User: What shape does this take?
Amino acid sequence: MSLLETKSLSKNFGSLNAVRDVSLQIQPGEIHAVIGPNGAGKTTFLNLLSGELPVSAGCLQFEGHDITRWSPDRRANAGIGRSFQHSAVFEDLTVHENLRLAAQTQYPKSFGMLWPAEGYTDVAARVTDVIAQLSLNAAESTRAGELSHGEQRQLEIGMLMAISPKLMMLDEPTSGMSRNETLELIGILRRLSERHTLMLVEHDMDVVFQLAHRITVLVNGSVLASGTPEAIRADASVRIAYLGQED
Ligand SMILES: Nc1ncnc2c1ncn2[C@@H]1O[C@H](COP(=O)(O)OP(=O)(O)OP(=O)(O)O)[C@@H](O)[C@H]1O
Ligand SMILES: [Mg+2]
Assistant: This one.
């Protein structure tokens, strides 16, 4: 069974068909990259999956359940997690506090004065585990607002790791990163994929072709092609419409 399946999913903004009739399946354990030119509908598609936007038509299933009408919170609780195209860390909090806050959302009852000791240990262990998996140069006690842009993006992914969703959706995680930061992130995502299913919206083709098991190409809201990296690389329509090469 697919982890997530969309059936003829569409989103219109007035007369603009931002997402048209998109049917695709995300298999458990895979890294599925969604690529396409600016304005192709990639972020909109992700917003339909996370529930940030209501669909105009079509439906989607997560682990076999129809979640089309579920709220973003309900989807998040079911195991759909996402990052945003623009960094969304709490700048006034430290690295550690940002991660702890994310980890705590997994233990909602442990908020407040009466912290069950067990829940606290779990949260602390989770934060330690995430920090070990990241490659931040900054100390845990550094305010997030003082991190470099690349490290803020990494922290954002760390916050998602602390929540540990079944499906992790990342919107352009490498945007604004230096080459080195991007290479580090590729390593982090590869290790993450051992435990999570990833959906990656990404412009950097090196990242896409190094990581993805399957690639879906969106153009003008529609699926132009979907398949293995080899199949996408060899697809003439993709080369002409998107990769910009006819050779
Ligand atoms: N809330 C909105 N209201 C109206 N139009 C929107 C809205 N969100 C997106 N659009 C439009 O829908 C189209 C798809 O936008 P979207 O942000 O999904 O593209 P994208 O593939 O993520 O692009 P990019 O690579 O630049 O991030 C664009 O034409 C955009 O202007
Ligand atoms: Mg986008």
In short: The pocket of adenosine-5'-triphosphate (ligand 1) is lined by residues 13, 16, 18, 36, 38-44, 85 (CB under 6 Å). The chain has nine helices and ten strands. The domain at 4-91+165-243 is CATH 3.40.50.300 (Rossmann fold). The first strand starts at residue 4 and ends at 13.
